[in-house]
Structures are given as C-alpha cells and as structure tokens.
C-alpha cells in the first residue's frame, strides 16, 4: 500500500522555485532517505508534506486521501509526525512534560493513556533517566532524542526526520541509528533527510536526490551514490 504520494508538487518563494514539479510515492513500511546540496529544497518538501506550508500546485495524498489543503494539525493527527532540523523544545518544561504536550495535542485521549504511552516512548528513546529534567539543560544528543520522542508521541504512521544526526559524534550517531532502526522495525514508515550519509545508508532502503527543487534520482542507495549525476551534483566530483 502507498502511504504517501506526491504528484507534480511545486512551490516558489517569490521568484525562487524551491520545489519543482516533484512526484514520488512511498510504500507503507519503507525507509526513504533524501539527500541533496544545501538549499536544494529538502526541508521545504517536508513542510509541504506536513502542511506547514501550502503547495502552489500539484497534489499530496496520505493514506489514499488528498491532504493537499488539509491543515498541519489534522495531518499530524492522521499520522504524519516530524522532527525539526533545529530542536526547539519547551525549555522550561521537563522532558516528560514536553512529550505530554506532543501526545495530547489535537487528540481525544485520556490523560492516563497519554501519560502511559509517553513513559514507554521515553524508555525507547533512552530518555527515561532525564524524564524530570528541564529540556533546556539537555545535551545535543538528548535534544535530538527528544525531537524523535516528541514526534513519536504523536503516534505517526509516517515519521519525517530532518537532519537528526547532524552535529553528533560517531558514537552518538550510532546510538541514535539503533533507536531509529528499532522504530522502523516496528513498521513505522520513515523519510529521513540527512547529510550524514553513512547514518542514512545504514537505515534506508531507497534514496531520493533533490537538486534545485527537482528530483534528479531515486532508487537503490548504492546505485544512487555511484551514479554520475549524483557524484557531480551532490558530491561535487567532476566525472
Ligand atoms: N519561508 C521561506 N521564504 C523564503 N525563502 C525560503 C523559505 N524557506 C526556504 N526558503 C529558501 O528556499 C531554499 C530551499 O530551502 P530549504 O531549507 O528547503 O533547503 P534544504 O535543502 O533543506 O537546505 P539545508 O540542507 O541547508 O537544510 C533556500 O534558498 C531557502 O533560503
């Protein structure tokens, strides 16, 4: 089953076309990586999928339903979760309270249900020992983990990760990869934008390359990394 389908989606900021006639489909259960140079339009693509910004043209389907004009909150409630490139937790709230906000947002769930699931998510994202610590005092890895945990607290069927491994040491990155793999193994569909290619390629089954807002390649990660176009455009190697 296709969980997400973009058809001819375009978006401009003034004269700058940041998303240029983008079409692709993601089968449920897949982990898809998105790579591309700085400014290629990767985060904008996430904002279009989540509804944080609206498309100028084209359509976006989630779980077979057209969500092109659906507000962000409703898309989140129906199963689109995301992490942001720059973690911005509620710094004066505790880690646990941050999760409660995400878990409660827009949902018709009892406080007891939300409290229970948030505790489980804190375990799975290795933040349980920090549950009562103010989020403002977390290390970078912990803040990245909190981004992941907050996204998980919204119960996503599709999880969008925006450069979640950026700035981490190799060891930190490896521990985060294991957590992401475990989430994926439970059946959550993942789309992951990342510049840390070894992290990305250890999780994803397919890679999509964006350049100047256009999809210039999509397919098996090894084949994509070896393609002439990707080496020239993304890695800056002249062939
Ligand atoms: N709200 C906005 N208004 C105007 N221009 C924007 C807006 N959002 C993004 N842009 C521009 O669109 C282009 C693509 O930005 P985007 O953040 O999507 O790229 P990216 O591929 O995610 O880059 P990076 O890898 O550096 O995060 C950039 O030139 C950016 O300055």
TrEMBL record:
GO molecular function: ATP binding; ATP hydrolysis activity; L-isoleucine transmembrane transporter activity; L-phenylalanine transmembrane transporter activity; L-valine transmembrane transporter activity
Domain ABC transporter: 4-237
Alphabetical list of SUPFAM superfamilies matching this protein: P-loop containing nucleoside triphosphate hydrolases
PROSITE patterns, A to Z: ABC_TRANSPORTER_2 (PS50893)
Keyword terms: ATP-binding, Nucleotide-binding, Transport
UniProt KW ATP-binding keyword: yes
GO CC terms of this entry: plasma membrane
A Pfam family the protein falls into: ABC_tran
Domain of life per record: Bacteria
GO biological process, one term: L-valine import across plasma membrane
The protein's name: ABC-type branched-chain amino acid transport system, ATPase component
Organism encoding this protein: Hoeflea phototrophica (strain DSM 17068 / NCIMB 14078 / DFL-43)
């Amino acid at each position: 089953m296709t969980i997400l389908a973009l058809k001819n989606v375009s978006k401009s900021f003034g004269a700058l076309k940041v998303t240029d006639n983008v079409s692709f489909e993601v089968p449920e259960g897949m982990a898809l990586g998105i790579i591309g140079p700085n400014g290629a339009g990767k985060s904008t693509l996430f904002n279009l999928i989540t509804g944080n910004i609206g498309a100028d043209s084209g359509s976006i389907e989630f779980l077979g339903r057209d969500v092109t004009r659906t507000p962000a909150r409703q898309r989140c409630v129906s199963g689109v979760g995301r992490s942001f490139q720059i973690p911005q937790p509620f710094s004066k709230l505790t880690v646990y309270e941050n999760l409660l906000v995400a878990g409660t947002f827009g949902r018709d769930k009892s406080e007891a249900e939300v409290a229970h699931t948030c505790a489980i998510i804190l375990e799975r994202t290795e933040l349980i020992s920090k549950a009562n610590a103010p989020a403002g005092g977390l290390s970078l890895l912990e803040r990245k983990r909190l981004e992941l945990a907050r996204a998980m607290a919204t119960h996503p069927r599709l999880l969008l990760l925006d450069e979640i491994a950026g700035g981490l040491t190799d060891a930190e990155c490896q521990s985060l990869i294991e957590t992401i793999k475990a989430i994926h193994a439970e059946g959550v569909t993942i789309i992951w934008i990342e510049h840390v290619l070894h992290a990305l390629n250890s999780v994803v089954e397919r890679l999509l390359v964006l350049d100047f807002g256009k999809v210039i390649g999509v397919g098996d990660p090894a084949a994509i990394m070896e393609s002439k176009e990707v080496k020239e455009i993304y890695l800056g190697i002249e062939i």
